[in-house]
Amino acid sequence: MRHRAQPAVKNLLYALLGAALAALPSGAASPPPAAPEVRGTWLTTTANDHIASPARTAETMRRLREIGLNSVYVETWKNGYTQYPSRVLEDLIGVDRRPDLAKQDPSDPDKPMPARDLLEETLIEAHRNGLAYIAWFEYGFMAAHKDTDNHLRKIRPDWLSRDIEGNEIAPNGFVWLNPLHPETRRFLLDIVLEAVDLYDLDGVQLDDRIVWPYVTMGYDDYTVAVYRNEHGGAAPPEDHTDPDWIAWRSEKITDYARQFVAELREARPGLIVSVSPAPYPWVYENYCLNWPLWAEEGLWDEYIPQCYRYSFEAFEPTWISQTELMTSGEARVSQLIAGVLTTGSRPDPVPWADLERKIDLVRSTGGGGHVWWFSRGVLDEYPDEITELYGVSELGPARRPDLPRGWRRPSIAMVFEDGRWTTPRVPEARYRVIVHDGEKWSYLPDGVLKTEPVTGNMLRASVDPASVDASLRVEGEARGWRTVELLIDRREDTLRPRRVRR
After folding, report:
1. Stated pTM of the model
2. In whole angstroms, what separates CA 104 from the centre of its chain?
């Protein structure tokens, strides 16, 4: 097969290049830069402590960059609550984010957990370290774990999907919002668009929960009424595996996917719009999801199938079968990013030798990169091995192929002198000021600054016109600040003005 021969050719070319470079006089050539690819990992509050506190978040983002990653996919919507203050959520259920003491799933700690703006906290730390940040709306249409009686489940039972017996808990152990109901569709879109408005995101991702809740679900009153209206009064088939019944539900999900992407494109045309489905055709047979059709239509920017297989022998046919789906219409194999399992339900992690072969296979088939499931495998199991795999010390970091070089430059530290926070020769750009109070970073109110005079509530910025790169001097109240830094702000590059619905 063609894909088996390519690694050998690639290795031969690398060997010839290495020999040529070795023959040059010392200092005459630099090693080739790392090839662009997505190198990411998912970060969740479940089953690890990597973003359990501001200090841990800071350490995590620093280590991920040192290891050689260029992207983080951070949990933003989980078990019926946003992980950031949301007016949309508050208007619906009376709380604006995950509340104090809320236990979201069985693995969460029993100790009190303060309400946080986890999105802002992780976003600042990711961007301080030059990492692209994809807001991962992990739960999608999932409303709650079966053992979680949250606000959403109690307040809007009419939004829930049900099976033919009227049960609201799907075989996967979760309670789901009905993906056909116009109010649930609007709600999910509004919390995503709200985050896009308020935060300097590089992208947005929906997981394998932008699907039908399960092939057994869809017998709630609303769905049955819509089906009857479109089928001359006939009820949905009692056989949930009926091919036409699966196809009908699949088409409804695809209709929503089109709406979702179109509204995001309108709000921020340059945003990376990502989806991470389960492999096809299993996901169609069990969740009525036909994501290869989405790729053919050119809907999303990247597709990250969750090829969660422990052995390389199981991973190889799964990955190859997904690449074969990306050959028609607008689909490109380069848009396909491998979701690679490092550790999961088994006590032992996936053997490193298998992981290395998986990454080699993805590269040899023209895939656009990989995302490790999940950060525990990167930080706790194989940090040294992944660092060596990436060759960071020799090649430097790899950029994402879908973002320009220098898109996320690390933060610029300021120095406090003579009552001013100052930094010389700042490259011309649009910045936000971030301040550290000894516990965590936060954005300064009205803190978007350009390299031109701007007046804010707390700071005044001025530009030295004699400086080629623009020397930005900031003065103002500094009580309680330990550190002040500037972060480049990319919202203006990709965002058209749009206001969140109130």
Report:
1. 0.89
2. 20
